[in-house]
Amino acid sequence: MASYVVFWRPEGIRNDCNKFGKPDTAGRGTARQLLWSLSPAPRSILVSAGEASGDYYAAELVRELRRRWPDCRFFGCAGPHLREAGVEPVVRSEDLSVVGIVEVVAHLPRIWLRFRRLISQAAHRKPELAILTDSPDFHFRVARKLKGLSIPVVYLIAPQVWAWRKGRVKIMRRVIDQLLCIFPFEEAFFRQHKIRVTYIGHPLASRVRPSLSRAEFFRKHNLDAGRPLIAVLPGSRRSEALRHLPELVRAAEIMSQSRPLNFLLPASPTCGAAFFEEPLAGTPIRAIEGEAWDAMAHCDLALAASGTVTVEAALLGAPMVTFYRVTELSWKLGKWLVDVPFYSMVNLIAEKRVVPELMQHEMTGERLAAEAECLLDNAAERWKMKKDLERVSALLAGTSMAGGRDPIMKAAEAVERTLRVSGVTQ
Fold first, then answer.
1. Are 60 and 188 in a shared domain?
2. DSSP-assigned letter for residue 42
3. Which of 47-56, 102-111, 336-345 is predicted least confidently?
4. What tens digit of pLDDT does each residue of 84-130 get?
5. Torsions phi, psi of 300, nearest 5?
6. Which of 24, 67, 297, 329 can bridge 210 by disulfide, Cβ–Cβ 3.0-4.6 Å?
7. Which H or E run contains 83?
């Protein structure tokens, strides 16, 4: 049975116009007139995510849209979260998970094949709408092709063009019908560049929470409750995790010389715990399957790769040292293109240095260990950081629930508006 959507015109609103917004010369305007008659909800929607965080956000949105439109079919580029939400994976997002200007070159043939398959499926299935998130270099090209197929595009989670390669806003203006941003400072930037944007707030603010108590978590993983817990977060992609692991292992070895510690690495869905068995063999670090939120909530300190995980750690109140490394050529090229005072999103939101940032050459085992031990040894510094993280968390939580509506609900409403504007549900 098909699903239907009804839209009513509120009392006294544009009563003199017909449903196309033009004067009702026939005099048929009435209060509470049916703005759009009963009409089918979308039959299919393309959803595409290229990274773990985007896969999670998009899956949450799909669940909300499926609640509104039970008969709608979803397909596209899907990671584990989207597949669990019922999205048919014509492409797997794990195949696109590459970061770095230079690093991506070796993977271009595979990415090109996935790109062609996704566009081919879009042309064949003719979805009423596409929802794209993260991986802007891939998805801007997808969006351009979709526009050629007259498929409206909603972009979930605004790309950080305000930080680097700002010239991309011209492409966004041409190929994106509705942009959804999650940080409060982004909306003004995109409006200034004449991009149709809606600020929805950060979805994680109302979702990030541990599932176990500290005692339960320690007991489950046989951790010594008398030892501080260090959460090791090398990145959700396999390539970045492998790039960071040698220095993280070195840091763990240095720190273990001065005190007994628990080191736990919660593996992302795109990596899996088995991926770390060989590189972590004989080291102080132990990998577990998922449970990142529990690990961060109950850790005494996190070593966190710069990215979404630092926002999660802030929301969970975990003191942290942030880091990141790319190839030398990518770093040099990126230095020319990046225009922000900080690299970590936590510091950008706070508009000051809250957490240490060890980028590129500064990311060494010795520096990681020194920064971590400074926090472990200095209760006052750790308390100060936790208070600053509470402020960051409050900024994210306070704005995300503005108006009493969840960010994913706001995103679903934006999708509905885009469909109406495009004429799909008229």
1. yes
2. P
3. 102-111
4. 999 999 999 877 755 444 445 555 778 888 899 999 999 999 999 99
5. -85, -20
6. 297
7. helix 80-84
Residue 409 lies in a domain: no
User: What single DSSP character describes residue 164?
Assistant: B
* CA distance linking residue 79 with residue 81, whole number of Å: 6
Domain boundaries, position 352? 214-400
Shared domain check, 32 and 46? no
pLDDT of residue 228: 96
Q: Are 287 and 271 in contact (CB under 8 A)?
A: no
Position 397 pLDDT exceeds 80: no
Q: Provide the pLDDT for residue 402.
A: 47
Do 124 and 172 fall within a single domain?
A: yes
Judgement on whether residues 34 and 49 belong to the same structural domain of the protein: no
Is the confidence at residue 185, as pLDDT, over 90?
A: no
**Are the C-beta atoms of residues 312 and 283 closer than 8 Å to each other?**
no
Q: 41 near 69, Cβ under 8 Å? A: yes
For the chain, what is the domain count?
3
Judgement on whether residues 29 and 97 belong to the same structural domain of the protein: no
* Sequence-ordered alpha helix ranges (H) in 299-378: 308-315, 328-337, 345-350, 365-377
Higher pLDDT, 135 or 109: 135
CA distance 398 to 170: 31
pTM here is 0.72
CB 193: neighbour CB atoms within 10 A? Answer: 15
Is there a single domain that holds both residue 166 and residue 27?
A: no
